[in-house]
C-alpha cells in the first residue's frame, strides 16, 4: 500500500486517533496497523480472535474513526486486494535455486528474500511527499540530533558521519559518557531529533522522544510499527520492515531509508552543500587519506 491508497489513509486515521481509543480498542488498532493485509480477508470474528479482543471492540473502533461498522472499515482494504500485488516470478525461481544449492542454501535464500522484501515493503509505505517534508524540516533546523542505541547506534552514527561531510549541524547521540536526554538539554523549536528503535523498544529512546516533544523539538521517528511509541510521538514517522530469519531485527531497510532521507536533505539544500562535499573529499585526497589509483 502507498499513500495514494485509501487503505493507507485509514491506517493514518487510526494512528491519529490512537490516544482517544480505549485500551481494548488500542489492541484492535495495533493489530490492524501491524497486519493491514489481514483486514481485507478477515471477518470481524476472525480478526478479533487474532487480536485477542471481542468482535464488538473492532466495531466500536471502526465507528470511533468515522466508519459505520467493521464492514465499512474493511472495504478500503478489500479494494487494495482487488487491485492486486506486484509479482516477482523471476525472483521466486532464483530463490528456489539458492534454496537447493546446499546445506545452508535454505537459510541463504530466506535471508536474501527477507532483505529484499523488507526494502520493498518499507518504500511501498513511504511517499516522496513525506520524505520531502522531513528533509525540509531537517535542512531548515539549527541542529539535528540522530539517536540510536544498540544496533541502531551505528546506523545513527553512519547517517551523522555522511551528513557531516557537507553540513555542520549534525550530532550523533548519546555522546560517549552521556545519556540522550542530557544531550538534548538545550534543544528546542529550531532543532530536529531523528530517533530510531525497533521492538523491543529501547526505553531511553522513547523517553528522549517524549522529552524532545515537550521542548518543542521536531521529531523524525523511524521504527518497525505504526503503533511504535516513537512513531506515535513523531512529527514525521517512517515505518521500516525489519523481519529476518535471524535472532536480531534486520537493519537493511533502516539503512536504506536513512540513505534516502539524507539524499532528500541534500536535494532540498542550498547549492553550497554540494561545494562543501566536494571540498571535503578534495581535502582528504590532498592529505593522502585515500589510496590513489595507479597512473
TrEMBL record:
Record keyword Protease present: no
Domain named HTH rpiR-type: residues: 8-84
Keyword Transport part of the UniProt annotation: no
SUPFAM superfamilies tied to this protein: Homeodomain-like, SIS domain
CDD domains: SIS_RpiR (cd05013)
Record protein name field: SIS domain protein
A single BP term in Gene Ontology: carbohydrate derivative metabolic process
Gene3D superfamilies linked: Glucose-6-phosphate isomerase like protein, domain 1 (3.40.50.10490), Winged helix-like DNA-binding domain superfamily/Winged helix DNA-binding domain (1.10.10.10)
Keyword annotations from UniProtKB, A to Z: DNA-binding, Transcription, Transcription regulation
Domain of life, source organism: Bacteria
UniProt-listed InterPro entries: Homeodomain-like_sf, HTH_RpiR, RpiR-like, RpiR-like_SIS, SIS_dom, SIS_dom_sf, WH-like_DNA-bd_sf
Pfam families: HTH_6 (PF01418), SIS (PF01380)
Domain named SIS: residues: 134-272
GO MF annotation list: carbohydrate derivative binding; DNA binding; DNA-binding transcription factor activity
Species annotation: Roseovarius nubinhibens (strain ATCC BAA-591 / DSM 15170 / ISM)
Amino acid at each position: 500500500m502507498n499513500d495514494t491508497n485509501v487503505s493507507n489513509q485509514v491506517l493514518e486515521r487510526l494512528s491519529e486517533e490512537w490516544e482517544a481509543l480505549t485500551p481494548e480498542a488500542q489492541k484492535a488498532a495495533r493489530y490492524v496497523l501491524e497486519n493491514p493485509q489481514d483486514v481485507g480477508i478477515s471477518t470481524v470474528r476472525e480478526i478479533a480472535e487474532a487480536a485477542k479482543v471481542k468482535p464488538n471492540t473492532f466495531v466500536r473502533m471502526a465507528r470511533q474513526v468515522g466508519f459505520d461498522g467493521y464492514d465499512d472499515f474493511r472495504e478500503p482494504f478489500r479494494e487494495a486486494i482487488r487491485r492486486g500485488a506486484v509479482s516477482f516470478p523471476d525472483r521466486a525461481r532464483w530463490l528456489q535455486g539458492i534454496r537447493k544449492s546446499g546445506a545452508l542454501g535454505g537459510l541463504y535464500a530466506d535471508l536474501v528474500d527477507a532483505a529484499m522484501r523488507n526494502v520493498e515493503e518499507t518504500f511501498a509505505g513511504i511517499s516522496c511527499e513525506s520524505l520531502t517534508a522531513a528533509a525540509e524540516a531537517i535542512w531548515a533546523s539549527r541542529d539535528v540530533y540522530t539517536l540510536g542505541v544498540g544496533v541502531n547506534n551505528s546506523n545513527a552514527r553512519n547517517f551523522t558521519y555522511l551528513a557531516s561531510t557537507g553540513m555542520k549541524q549534525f550530532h550523533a547521540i548519546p555522546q560517549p559518557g552521556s545519556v540522550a536526554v542530557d544531550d538534548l538539554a538545550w534543544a528546542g523549536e529550531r532543532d530536529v531529533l531523528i530517533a530510531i528503535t525497533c521492538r523491543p523498544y529501547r526505553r531511553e529512546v522513547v523517553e528522549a522522544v517524549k522529552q524532545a516533544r515537550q521542548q518543542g523539538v521536531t521529531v523524525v521517528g523511524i521504527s518497525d510499527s505504526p503503533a511504535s511509541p516513537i512513531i506515535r510521538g513523531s512529527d514525521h514517522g517512517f515505518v521500516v520492515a525489519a523481519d529476518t530469519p535471524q535472532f536480531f531485527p534486520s537493519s537493511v531497510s533502516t539503512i536504506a531509508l536513512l540513505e534516502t532521507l539524507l539524499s532528500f536533505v541534500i536535494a532540498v539544500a542550498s547549492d553550497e552543500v554540494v561545494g562543501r562535499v566536494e571540498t571535503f573529499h578534495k581535502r582528504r585526497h590532498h592529505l593522502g587519506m585515500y589510496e590513489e589509483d595507479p597512473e
